[in-house]
UniProtKB/TrEMBL annotation, chain A:
Its EC number is 1.8.7.1. GO terms for molecular function: sulfite reductase (ferredoxin) activity. It comes from Tabrizicola soli. It comes from the Bacteria. Residues 119-272, 410-546 form the Nitrite/sulphite reductase 4Fe-4S domain. This is Nitrite/sulfite reductase. It is an enzyme of class 1 (oxidoreductase). The keyword Transmembrane does not apply. The lineage of its organism: Bacteria, Pseudomonadati, Pseudomonadota, Alphaproteobacteria, Rhodobacterales. InterPro entries: NIR_SIR_4Fe-4S, NiRdtase/SiRdtase_haem-b_fer, Nit/Sulf_reduc_fer-like_dom_sf, NO2/SO3_Rdtase_4Fe4S_dom, NO2/SO3_Rdtase_4Fe4S_sf. Gene3D superfamilies: Sulfite Reductase Hemoprotein, domain 1, Sulfite Reductase Hemoprotein,Domain 2.
């Protein structure tokens, strides 16, 4: 894992000192709130409905056990004993008090973490495939590039006041687990005919009020051109992005208003100008960074214990069949620890759970932890022979839920339980969906399904790319939930289609049940997933199931 | 109304704006405490109370603006004051919108915030 250089260390410490002073000046009245707000947002500190909220970056989702323990310590010392992992590989603390935030930032700096650029119109935390460096389907590890981009974008003088926020995601595998097509820039590692590594570059994706799938602007960008090319895209956006209208300020709008051909021409011209200015130091840096991501020393040992347990223990088998992913070393597995026990808040972990995960990562996982945008925790390198004992420890801590990729593995934004922007709640909808279908015992019957819930049109819960998306709105002073179907966040990204009128808070769970019962009735065989069935039959059968009975009720 | 939307794009979908030139709906002044972030309400005797029903229910538009100005001046006490709709109730003003109702309690997924703090 990458360790801070002296430069990184000094930069983060300087920022903590600056912000400490800024907080003091706010508290003694030297700074007004109007002056202070942009300063606190630059450091990830929001004011939400009930309290402040501190958003901390987990670059490309990677944590070491020491960092995880420090997050637990922060949760216990300055918050309420838990943290919330977000859909962009950040962690949020919901209850910090303003005078204590400098101490939290200092504690973060002690473990090489910070909250810089987790808010504001700048390049945000660079996200990556949470299985990076472990997945069997990976072409190359995306983390070194993500780290290079993090260093380049942090405090980049040209890009601190962009028209809007800017999000970059990178995947090293053809199966896109990083939702790259829904980012301002999406990078997909590819190999060309000569076997060289490079990137397919996507630009202009985004969810929010105007959801768009990104366009491919380069099929193959050579590895060494990464920074100058990304810088060219940002430069063009910085010049042409609309600052007159916040709702039209993202690069996706610039791209659509200016046209792909013209934007591409501008980017290529800027790239031609910038490319010679990169004298190769970026590549030297990349080589150094790459060393920090060398694979762990994999153990060579029998996996009989795993096979025996898998056969003998149905609870272990259910968990193994849903929560494990193929590792590139076939003696190993990638473990997804579900933070979605039915009835719990998606993405929340208690300090006790964080400490246990840190211990388990140390004992069985080569000291590596990941946070996924799907709000789960990953142990990317676990030898199969260790899985039974790992599973037992997880179960004892309430972390053994066997539901990854299934209905109750819901991603949900904080919604109106915390967020000042929300128009409706999302967490209780996720909780009720999970407990309702657990009681019906239908989850495994239904099979692979991604439900994603946002509490406002900004779409932090990625509802547009959920197989079933739920968007909470305020309709005339009442919570109302709009449903979209057929969304897909993978390499075949699709924006979901609206079903029609929304549903009241107490109607949304029965509405989802009607959709899923319709699916069970119309699928051709058990292996046809909800998404496949939707692609085959389209919207109509689901609309009929959703609204037919309603119409009858209204008419009555 | 000042909210944390400076760098974000909030949405008030399909709400047809404030009731333009219609009768003034009663208001209360609310904000968050600067240090703790707690939700507070301006009382008639110039305190900041954590209890919605202790807020001053303002029935007159000009008076509402004056009270908001008074609140805005208290820069060391509170952040982001705004006027929120309210209606009279048996114990005092009650919120009319669910967002303001949630602000009187705290989140629904944990017993945190006011619902816990005020109970103890």
């Amino acid at each position: 894992m990458y360790s801070y250089s002296d430069f990184d260390e000094a930069f983060v410490r300087t920022r903590v000192a600056q912000f400490t002073n800024q907080v003091e000046r706010r508290l003694d009245g030297s700074l007004t709130e109007d002056e202070f707000r942009p300063l606190r947002l630059m450091n990830g500190l929001y004011l939400q409905l009930h309290a402040y909220m501190l958003r901390i970056a987990i670059p490309y989702g990677s944590l070491n056990p020491g960092q995880m323990r420090q997050l637990a310590y922060i949760a216990d010392t300055w918050d309420k004993g838990y943290g919330h992992f977000t859909t962009r590989q950040n962690i949020q603390f919901n209850w910090p008090k303003l005078p204590e935030v400098p101490a939290i930032l200092s504690a973060l700096a002690d473990v090489q973490m910070h909250s810089i650029q987790t808010s504001g119109n700048c390049v945000r935390n660079v996200t990556a495939d949470h299985f990076a460096g472990a997945a069997a389907d990976e072409i190359a590890d995306p983390r070194p590039y993500a780290e290079l981009l993090r260093q380049w974008s942090t405090d980049h003088p040209e890009f601190q006041f962009l028209p809007r926020k800017f999000k970059i995601a990178i995947t090293g595998a053809p199966n896109d687990r990083a939702v790259t097509a829904a980012h301002d820039i999406g990078l997909r590692i590819v190999r060309n005919a000569a076997g060289e590594t490079g990137f397919q570059v996507l630009v202009g994706g985004g969810l929010g009020r105007t959801p768009m799938v990104a366009m491919v602007v380069r099929d193959f960008l050579p590895e060494a051109d990464l920074l100058p090319y990304v810088e060219a895209v940002l430069s063009v956006y910085n010049s042409f992005g609309r600052r007159d209208n916040k709702f039209k300020a993202r690069i996706k709008i610039t791209l659509h208003e200016t046209g792909k051909d013209e934007i591409t021409r501008l980017v290529e011209a800027e790239f031609a100008r910038l490319r010679p200015l990169f004298g190769g130091n970026d590549q030297k840096l990349l080589a150094d960074i790459r060393e920090a991501f060398a694979p762990p020393a994999f153990r060579n040992a029998p996996v009989d214990a795993y096979d025996a347990f898998h056969t003998a223990d149905p609870v272990f088998r259910a968990w193994a069949d849903t929560n494990l992913t193929a590792h590139r070393n076939d003696q190993y597995a990638i473990v997804t620890v579900s933070l979605k026990a039915p009835g719990k808040t998606p993405g929340d972990a208690t300090s006790e759970q964080m400490r246990l995960l840190a211990d388990l990562a140390e004992r069985y996982g080569h000291g590596d932890l990941r946070i996924s945008h799907e709000q789960n925790v990953i142990l990317p390198h676990v030898h199969k022979s260790d899985l039974p004992v790992l599973h037992a420890a997880l179960v004892k801590a309430g972390l053994g839920t066997a539901n990854v990729g299934l209905l109750s593995d819901i991603i949900a934004c904080p919604g109106m339980d915390y967020c000042a922007l929300a128009t409706a709640r999302s967490i209780p909808v996720a909780q009720e969906l999970a407990t309702h279908f657990e009681a019906l015992k239908l989850e495994h019957e239904i099979g692979p399904l991604k439900i994603k819930i946002s509490g406002c049109i900004n779409a932090c819960g990625h509802h547009h790319v959920g197989h079933i998306g739920i968007l909470g709105l305020d309709r005339a002073g009442v919570e109302n939930y709009q449903i979209t179907l057929g969304g897909d966040g993978t390499e075949d990204a699709v924006i979901g289609e609206k079903t029609g009128p929304g549903f009241a808070y107490d109607e949304i769970v029965p509405a989802i049940e009607r959709i899923l019962r319709a699916y069970l009735g119309l699928r051709q065989e058990a292996s046809e997933t909800f998404l496949q069935a939707f692609k085959r039959v389209g919207m109509e059968p689901f609309k009929a199931a959703l609204y037919a009975s309603e119409g009858a009720q209204d008419a009555a | 109304m000042i909210r944390e939307n400076i760098l974000y794009s909030p949405d008030t979908p399909d709400r047809k704006g404030p009731t333009m030139s219609r009768r003034f709906t009663p208001k209360i002044v609310t904000a968050n405490r600067l240090r703790e972030g707690d939700v507070v309400y301006l009382t008639a005797d110039d305190r900041w109370s954590e209890l919605h029903h202790e807020a001053e229910l303002i029935e007159d538009e000009a008076h509402a603006q004056l009270r908001l100005l008074h609140a805005s001046a208290q820069k060391l006490m509170i952040v982001g004051p705004y006027l929120a709709d309210a209606r009279p109730g048996p114990r005092g003003p009650e919120p009319t919108h669910f967002r303001e109702e949630f602000r009187t309690r705290g989140p629904s997924n944990y017993n945190h915030g006011k619902q816990a703090d005020l109970a103890s």
